[in-house]
Amino acid sequence: MPTRRAVHIVLGVLVAIVVIGGAALGLDWYKSQFASDATLGDGTPIAGIGGPFTLTDTNGEKVSDTDFAGRPRAIFFGFTYCPDVCPTTLFELGTYLDELGPAAKDLAVIYITVDPERDTPEQMKLYLSSFNDQIIGLTGSQEELDPVLDAFRVYRKKVPLDDGDYTMDHTAAVYLFNRKGEMVGTIAYQEDKKTALPKLKRLLEKS
Fold first, then answer.
1. What is the pLDDT of residues 142-182, one digit of tens each?
2. How far is CA 34 from CA 40, 72, 183, in A?
């Protein structure tokens, strides 16, 4: 017959399993809502993400959110020294723009840096020259970017490297906004083209 202590241990383990399982299910639900096709199912806005901004483009000119008023937007946050996520995503976005044809001209594709220390307008211009020329690069000072990144709930973290340099961890999803400036979905990193491209088509059609 098990002792009272043994029973307590078993109950404790069971409670832990339930808590951990619940947390995992909660994370899976969040990921499915935030990064899946469901986020653009009926065009319902996702509240509390996004906001006004004024930053600097690759020509050194000031650009604000109002310059894109009335246009659907696909916004991606990254940095030019990114080894994989950013070039992959920018290449895919360029491919989608080509496949959208003439309708693509109505879509504002914006790339905002999370690394203002290195990403000057000149550096952004050089970097983006390797991708579709419709992609707009924006940078600014740390003081200008921090409130923008916070408003868009962008995760970013400076990670030191052994050689004294650093890299940046950051949110990898593409944010989708309708013509009213409301967030209505995302494209996940390396999402299948079969779901990613239709999201952009619906964004252009429904907006």
1. 999 999 999 999 999 999 999 999 999 999 999 999 999 99
2. 10, 18, 11
Q: What pLDDT, in 10s, does the model give residues 15-45?
A: 333 333 333 333 333 343 344 444 544 567 8
Burial pattern 101-137, b for ≥16 Cβ within 10 A else e, equals eeebeebbbbbbbbbbeebbbebbbebbeebbeebbb
Specify the pTM: 0.81
- The mean pLDDT value of the chain amounts to 84
Beta-bridge mates of residue 76: 111, 174
Do 137 and 120 touch, CB atoms closer than 8 A? no
Residue 36 tokens read as: 């899946």
Residue 140: Cβ-neighbour burial (10 angstroms; 0-12, 13-18, 19+): buried
Query: Cβ(173)–Cβ(155) under 8 Å?
Result: no
Cα–Cα distances (Å) from 110 to 55, 57, 75, 192, in that order, read 11, 10, 5, 21
